[in-house]
Design brief:
107 residues; mainly alpha; 6 helices; 0% strand; globular
Amino acid sequence: GAERLLSTARQLKPSMPDVHIALAELSLANGALRNPAEALQSATTAVQLTAHKNAPALALLAQAHAANGDPGKAVVAIQEAMTIEPKNKDYMDLLRRYREETQSLSR
């Protein structure tokens, strides 16, 4: 399936951020392919390969941190995405959600 194809692409082209982004997105999707740990690894690699300059990759990293139960790191990643795209409403919504999750964990 798609997961095997993307894994093969990652092996053949490990320096292509888009492959890692697609793998992270697939691993964050609900269903049988959901794998938050894989999503975090792939998103982290995508952010590194894009030198922290790709806002969608940073937003994906934030989502992966949240999916792995770390809303504090999700806040940091989405704030970094917002330095690139400050008016992105989706990022604003994610920031609000992750801040709320962080506050509810500290209570």
